[in-house]
Amino acid sequence: MAAAAVLPVLWRVEDAIAQGVQPKRGGTLNSIVNPEPPILHVGINNQAPTLIIGGKIFQGLLRYDAKLNPMPELAKSWEVSPDGLEYTFHLQENVKFHDGKPMTADDVVFSIMKFHMEVSPRARGVFARIKEGVAVNPTTVKFVLSEPFEPFLLMFDNTVSAIVPKHLFDGQDYRQAPAVQKPVGTGPFKFAEWQRGNFIRLERFDEYWKPGQPYLDAIIYRVVPDSQSRRLALESGQVQLTQSNDIEPFDVPQMRARPNLEVKTTGWEYMGPLMWMDFNHRVKPLDDVRVRRALTMAVNRDFIAQRLWFGIGKPATGPFHSATRFYDASAKAPAYNVEAAKKLLDEAGLKPNGQGVRFTIKHLSLPYGEVFTRLGEFLRQSFRQVGVDLQLESVDVGTWSQRTANWEFDTTINYLYQYGDPTLGVERSYVSTNIKKILFSNVAGYENPKVDDLFKQGRDAADPKVRQQVFSEVQKLLVEDVPLLWLMEMSFPTIYDKKLNNVITSGSGVHASFDDVFLA
Question: What is the pTM of this model?
Answer without folding.
Answer: 0.84
